[in-house]
Amino acid sequence: MYKYLIAMLAMVIFATAAWAQKDDEPIRCDTCGMFCEKSSTRMQMELNIDGEKGLYHFESLGCVFNKMAELKEGGAKEIKVANAMILDYSTFGTDDEQMLDPHEAWYLVGTSRLKGSMAPFIAAFATKDMATSMQDELGGEVMDHDSMAAQMVGDDEDRKHDGHDDGSKEMHAMADVYICPCSGGCCDDIKSDKPGECPKCGMQLVKKEDK
What is the pLDDT of residue 21? Predict the structure, then answer.
C-alpha cells in the first residue's frame, strides 16, 4: 500500500516538474519559430479562426501576414482579430518594455536592420513624433497603421517574406556550413557544420548555398 502511494506521489511530482519546464520554455513565433523575446518588432494577436479563438505570437509584421496567408491557403473561411498588441520599438531591451495597440501606433517602414527581426523591417512607435525622431537613425518612411497595412498588402505578391526562406543573400558562399536565416543582424555570427537550432533566436539553421 505504501509503495503504491509513494509511486503515485512520484508520478505527480514528475508531472508537475514536466509542466513547469514546459511553462518556462521561451515563446516562439507561430510562423517561423524564432524566440519572440529576442525580436524588437514582436507582437501578439488573439485570432478567431472559423469560430475558434487562439493566442498567436509573431516576431514581426511580416510573420503576421505570412500566417494569415497560410491560414487562408489551409482552408480558413473567416479570420477575425479579437485583440492585438505590438512592441514599442523605443522600449525594446529596457526594464519597461511597452506594448501598443497596432491600430494606434506609428511606423517606420522599410528601415535598416532591426534587432531580432526579419524583413520587411518595420518598427512601431507610440507617437508620430517618436517615429520621426528615429528616422535619421533607422531610415524608412513614417506611416500610420492604415498606410503601413496597405503597403504590406500591395507588396505581398512580390515580397513573399523571403527573409525566412534562406537569409543568406548578403553572405559569402561557404560549403557545408549551416547559418541562422534571421536577417535582423543578431545572429550573423552563428555558424555550424551541421543542422540544428540557433542558440540565439531559436530558428532552424539552414545550409548556406553558393551564390
Answer: 41
